[in-house]
Amino acid sequence: MTEPAPRPTLEAVAARAGVSRATVSRVVNGAEGVRAPLAERVRQVVEELGYVPNQAARSLVTKRHDAVAVVIAEPETRVFADPFFALQLRGISKELTAHDAQRVLLLTEGREDHARVGRYLAGGHVDGALVFSLHLDDPLPALIRRAGVPTVFGGRPGWSDGAGEGEDSANRVAYVDSDNRGGARTAVRHLTGLGRRRIAHICGPLDQTSAADRLEGYRDAMGEVVGEDDPRLVVESDFTPGGGERAMRGLLDRVPGLDAVFAANDLTASGALRVLRARGLRVPEDVAVVGFDDMLPVAEQTDPPLTTVRQDIEEMGRLMTRLLLHGPDDRCPGERTAQARRGIVLPTTLIRRASA
Fold first, then answer.
1. What are phi and psi of 95, to 5 degrees?
2. 36, 98, 335, 343: which could join 175 in a potential S-S bond, CB 3.0 to 4.6 Å?
């Protein structure tokens, strides 16, 4: 084995550049007070020697760690099986890379994990946190508030973290979301425009605001056409293909004459399509199907390809990161003053394919 070459030191850079150690430190840490020609000479020597600042020492000077915690309130089996999380992480990673910052991924599966995440955030290891896939009874918002780290949430806040109740409390939370209720209305209006009337809805878990908002959008649109929605046509699921299969079987057993399904996400819709095909029902002739997300690895590969509501998942991750690093400004479209306190809500679009 060959021993690694010694790392260049701050003193070596100072000696090569003919300046003091303090001058090199100011240049490396981006501080002011160094003349431009001198600063450029230091940067050239840093490049020549391959000097890499000691992050721990740098943090003592700058009070920054150049690291952001990404907290997903789901077990790893769910996170690594669902392309939604991959898309959101891609947007986050792109924005962090542009700012030379690192991502620390934290997943939660039980109460012990929540306590571990809370301790880590309170320990001052990161500059902020991006948190998504929260459930209404999740203790994370309260733990994060006590940790005192800047935080942006993915999804409309719908929880109580002890900081207060109602609209004023929600306004103090920074978040990025999609227009889930409006997107669901668009999906169901598309189905009613095709002449469908017995439209089922397979919900996501209703302890998440995205699923609850999509259910409300379904009810809005159904109310416009048929009055009160039939409770037999609504079944709660879990945003997974297996959940979509179970829900679809139950719906067909209860309401064999249904003529359309609005699924709360594309994975749920993919499971529903498999059951419809197994039962000998044609899509869209017998039963039309619309999903939500427009995750291309799913929506374009179902049989038939899936009509769905598109939300820009990668953009959500990117804007969460921008909001954390910069706050609301002209790089966060549509955000001004009071609106910025509530967060960013991105529009949704219906993407028509062969299933409806």
1. -70, -40
2. 343
